[in-house]
């Protein structure tokens, strides 16, 4: 399994990175299957440096905040209107109401919405979905909207993506024994941080320790947050290898 970080900025695109978007690839049926996890604002352009938009096989959306799904609108335009289009419908998974939210974001009528090019299905907490070589299991997190961590398994390798969440035991279960834990760390330690929203570097490190992960990759850090402090907090709470996600970085999982 290979992970390419397309965008890792938290809450909005930053000067060095688009918002959340991760390309996950694995061999399947004699070719490479490409799963896109989240498609936040600003991500669609840089994505094309790594893969053609007609080569995406499936999309998994963790939750319906714009920094995690808004560039679905651009994907719809491409797949609907590209020369020779529309392209075949692409399996797309997201929280309750995803199809309607995608339609509203592009000012489309709810029926048919984007259904000409997106085959939208709804996550069910704890129920695994098969997407090519990947088994993707959503785990409900602690966030102001319905939000999921996604545990992605293929060929014996495990990648867990936290999505957005406050501290919750469900995150530790989602990341249990993962080879790579892609975990948000939006806040630095501060008693004034709002609850039920995001993690600190310490929270991410503690979750990684509790889950027994092999490697921690810190992501979703807003431009206003001190990245070095996030990294130091995580290292104090997790003794395994950890680093900050960077747009364009590639990781082999497993």
From TrEMBL:
InterPro entries: Metallo-B-lactamas, RibonucZ/Hydroxyglut_hydro. The keyword 4Fe-4S does not apply. One of its GO terms (molecular function) is 3'-tRNA processing endoribonuclease activity. Keywords: Hydrolase. Residues 18-196 form the Metallo-beta-lactamase domain. It holds the Pfam family Lactamase_B_2. PANTHER family: METALLO-HYDROLASE YHFI-RELATED, ZINC PHOSPHODIESTERASE ELAC PROTEIN 1. This is MBL fold metallo-hydrolase.
């Amino acid at each position: 399994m290979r992970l390419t970080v397309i965008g890792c900025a938290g809450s909005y695109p930053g000067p060095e990175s688009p918002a959340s978007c991760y390309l996950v690839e694995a061999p399947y049926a004699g070719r490479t299957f490409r799963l896109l996890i989240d498609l936040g604002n600003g991500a669609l352009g840089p994505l094309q440096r790594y893969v053609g938009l007609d080569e995406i096989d499936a999309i998994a959306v963790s939750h319906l905040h714009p920094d995690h799904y808004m560039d679905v609108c651009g994907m719809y335009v491409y797949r609907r209107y590209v020369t020779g289009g529309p392209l075949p419908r692409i399996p797309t998974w997201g929280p309750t109401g995803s199809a309607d939210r995608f339609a509203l974001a592009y000012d489309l009528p709810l029926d048919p919405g984007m259904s000409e090019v997106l085959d939208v299905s709804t996550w069910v907490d704890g129920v695994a979905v098969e997407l090519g070589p990947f088994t993707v299991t959503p785990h409900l997190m602690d966030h102001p909207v319905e939000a999921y961590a996604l545990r992605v398994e293929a060929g014996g390798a495990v990648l867990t993506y936290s999505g957005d969440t406050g501290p919750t035991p469900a995150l530790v279960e989602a990341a249990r024994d993962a080879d790579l834990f892609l975990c948000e760390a939006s806040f630095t330690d501060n008693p004034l941080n709002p609850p039920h929203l995001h993690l600190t570097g310490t929270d991410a490190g503690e979750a990684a320790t509790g889950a027994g992960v092999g490697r921690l990759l810190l992501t979703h850090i807003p431009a206003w947050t001190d990245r070095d402090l996030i990294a130091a907090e995580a290292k104090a709470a997790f003794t395994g290898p950890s680093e900050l996600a960077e747009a364009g970085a590639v990781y082999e999982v497993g």
